Amino acid sequence: MKKTAILPALALALFLAPCASFAAPSTPGSYSLDFDATKYTVQTSTLDGKTFSYRAYEGIVYVQHPLDPAYETINIYVPVEYYSARTVGGYTIDNAPIFFPNSVGGYMPGAAAKPGLDFEGKPNALVVALSRGLIVAAPGARGRTLQDGSGRYTGKAPAAIVDLKAAVRYLRFNDKLIPGSSERIISNGTSAGGGLSALLGASGDNADYEPYLKALGAANARDDVYAVSAYCPITNLDNADSAYEWLLGGLTETKASTMGPPPAGAAAAATGAGAAMAPPAGMPAAAPTGAMGAAGATGAALPFGAPPSSGGPMTAEQLAVSARLKALFPAYLDGLGLRKADGTALALDASGDGSFRDYLKSLLIASAQTALKGGADLSKLDWVTIKDGVVTDIDWAGYVKYCGRKKAAPSFDGLDLSSGENSLFGTMSVNAQHFTAFGLANDASGTGAMASADLVRMMNPMAYIGAKGTTTSKYWRIRHGTVDSDTAIAIPAILATRLGNGGYSVDFALPWDRPHSGDYDLEELFTWIDGICR
């Protein structure tokens, strides 16, 4: 049935339908994969003084056999104008793009997001998307701290990416019933959520995930997406430690840190000890059943990296680890065979100098020039050279010092298994494991084991870009702030360059003076979406 055929017969009845929207099990422990267009509420939001309405289909379980139905749900929102055969923002009920924002931070559980206010009290990305005529389908996903009633972990890798794929499959399976085009799904995420957004876009339809999807009873449909928006993606985890030390290894102490603002709809979650942060007004104070230190959210504060720290010097052991990890990065980078758009090879010598560093420096200069043109005062930054209103040079060492390091070495694969990423790679019975050969070889926990190579690969988008049997997204928008040291700027730069070398369309930038955060340039984001969808 065409979506437009739904309108004449059901428009009034559906607009006045009752509010229940949580999917009813077809059998005990089993949920229907059929979208019920009659179960919704009508909600309103206000943006720029204009109030508008949309249908809210909330709490839909998107797999037949969820391990945690509190998180394996999706919220779908549709502008009501579409039900009176009107266009919104130039789109129709049939061709409107589907905005697909996940709320994952720290690889913790992420509840399905809702339209509302963001961390700064502004309308969040879901509100802006709806105002511009996009359909919003916000998926929840399991995370590394979830446990069932028996104490078994149910959200370790690859749970989060499997859940996002299952949610995409639900949208495709119900394409004739859900407004919008499932051929125009645009994924969005920040931090770990940005990493998952990138992984979702890179690994579409790859068979590696099929056994996990079948076990959940995911719909029999494709799981590739049209485009990816990724803010400060925490990704390429098996190479993140060496990249971090290559960039920041010359710094001997960590800086004082605070929490960066979260993406719209992010779940409040701590990333180490599991202690929940207090959500802002209007947010639930308790987590759904099964969560450890997570709360469903519509814009709650989210600690993306380590908890706040006063900073301080690294130990002699940490400095030694830093030097060893730094030495590993050039070989990894050179092995990728990356090239600039003009064909210039991107490489590093054994000391860590070379064309790749020069390339990153050029991106920083471009970012500084954009900031200067926008009115930023850079005159106090003695490591930035400005001549006649043009940024002509940046002193690399000065930039590194200005950026500062947030984490002690190693930053991701903790030798004592204490990092959130160690926890991500645990098992149903083991909380944390190593995921790099360096981490395992230098294990300080006394009990360390190594996650399987297959599992580590399944969490890294670099392994899937353009791979055989894979549908990688055509369009990409990647943002990473110049003072974001939750991961090294090399990581998103490598991702963007590999994509560009593969022929994919990539919009990559390093926003000036931006810390670890997301959804801060929504006007630009949705203008980009309009540009690739019209």
Task: Give a verbal description of the structure.
With 534 residues, this protein is an alpha/beta fold. Helices cover 29% and strands 15% of the residues. It is built from 14 helices and 17 strands. The protein has a nine-stranded mixed sheet, sandwiched between helices. Strands 1-2 form a two-stranded antiparallel sheet. The chain has a two-stranded antiparallel ribbon with strand order 10-13. Strand 3 and strand 4 (50-61) form a beta hairpin. Helix 6 packs across helix 7. The relative contact order is 0.14.
Q: How many DSSP helices?
A: 14
pLDDT average, as an integer? Answer: 88
Give the helix/strand class: alpha/beta
Strand residue percentage: 5-15%
Tell me roughly what share of residues is in helical segments. 25-40%
Report the sheet with the most strands, covering strand number, pairing sense and barrel closure. Answer: 9 strands, mixed
Q: Give the overall silhouette.
A: globular
Describe this structure in a few short sentences:
The protein has 534 residues and is of the alpha/beta class.
Primary descriptors:
single chain; 534 residues; alpha/beta; 17 strands; two-stranded antiparallel sheet; nine-stranded mixed beta sheet
Describe the SSE topology.
Elements: H1 3-15, E1 25-27, E2 30-31, E3 41-47, E4 50-61, E5 73-79, E6 98-101, H2 125-131, E7 135-139, H3 159-173, E8 185-190, H4 192-202, H5 210-216, E9 227-231, H6 237-248, E10 253-254, E11 268-269, E12 294-295, E13 312-313, H7 316-336, H8 355-373, E14 384-387, E15 390-394, H9 396-403, H10 420-424, H11 437-441, H12 453-458, E16 475-479, H13 490-501, E17 505-509, H14 522-533
Parallel strand pairs: 6-7, 6-8, 8-9, 9-16, 16-17
Antiparallel strand pairs: 1-2, 3-4, 4-5, 5-7, 10-13, 11-12, 14-15
Helix pairs in contact: 6-7
